[in-house]
């Protein structure tokens, strides 16, 4: 009998622009393409977003990845993954079907997934089942308000990382975001936020129990490898 592949729920943002400035945002190409490249032969994927349908791809991330063959292949051969997402409302309550959830970044999650009730329910239920929760760059914004059934933050007391304040200022988004991701991750984790020693573009992945977080696009491959390790594939 052939063992079934683990199933990974990928949650993408539906936010396509900064509400105050209109600056285009979305999900970040390499932060999905790189982990997907590592995992897609070993796992089954289900894609969801708050609004369903096509999840907005940050075009700046496409321009940054023009010379990346993995990103190019993902764009050319796997576009249905983000163009035909399920609504999160249709996925919430079905966590028994999944072995892990993964939140790629891009600035979008800072504006919708940070407070999306269906995403928060999914995280609560998966955490209760001790299943793998992974998030990258701005993806950890989805975790900062997520609570257990007992009302504690799921990252309380856990080591975490995510895009830092220096990076926000470097790329000119510090005035666009409504909160400091670094600050809120540090607060909700109880001072457990960590970042790369060599600046906002350095690789940093933190694994603490069933929670895997990566700081930035440079950490995408490592997050993919840690997801594979956690799933035993």
Automatic annotation (TrEMBL):
Q: Which GO terms describe its cellular component?
A: cytoplasm
> EC no.?
4.2.1.130
Which Gene3D superfamilies does the entry mention?
Answer: 3.40.50.880
Quote the catalytic activity from the record: methylglyoxal + H2O = (R)-lactate + H(+)
Top-rank taxon, per record: Eukaryota
Q: Where is the DJ-1/PfpI domain?
A: 94-229
Annotated keywords: Lyase, Stress response
Q: GO molecular function: any one?
A: glyoxalase III activity
**GO biological process terms on file:** methylglyoxal catabolic process to D-lactate via S-lactoyl-glutathione
Family affiliation: Belongs to the peptidase C56 family. HSP31-like subfamily.
Q: What is this protein called?
A: D-lactate dehydratase
């Amino acid at each position: 009998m052939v063992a079934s592949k683990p199933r990974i729920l990928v949650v993408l943002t539906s936010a396509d622009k900064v509400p105050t400035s209109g600056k285009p945002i979305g999900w970040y190409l390499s932060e999905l393409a790189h982990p997907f490249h590592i995992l897609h032969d070993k796992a089954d994927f289900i894609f969801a977003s708050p609004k369903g349908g096509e999840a907005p791809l940050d075009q700046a991330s496409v321009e940054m990845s023009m010379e990346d063959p993995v990103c190019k292949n993902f764009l050319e051969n796997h576009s249905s993954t983000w163009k035909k997402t399920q609504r999160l409302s249709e996925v919430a309550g079905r966590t028994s079907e999944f072995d892990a959830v993964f939140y790629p970044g891009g600035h979008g999650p800072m504006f919708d997934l940070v407070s999306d009730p269906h995403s928060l329910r999914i995280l609560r239920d998966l955490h209760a089942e001790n299943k793998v929760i992974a998030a990258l760059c701005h993806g950890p914004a989805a975790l900062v308000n997520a609570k257990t059934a007992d009302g504690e933050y799921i990252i309380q007391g856990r080591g975490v990382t995510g895009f830092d304040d220096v990076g926000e200022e470097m790329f000119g988004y510090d005035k666009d975001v409504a909160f400091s991701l670094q600050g809120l991750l540090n607060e909700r984790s109880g001072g457990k936020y960590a970042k790369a020693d060599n600046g906002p573009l350095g690789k940093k992945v933190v694994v603490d129990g069933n929670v895997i977080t990566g700081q930035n696009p440079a950490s995408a491959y490592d997050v993919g490898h840690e997801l594979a390790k956690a799933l035993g594939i």
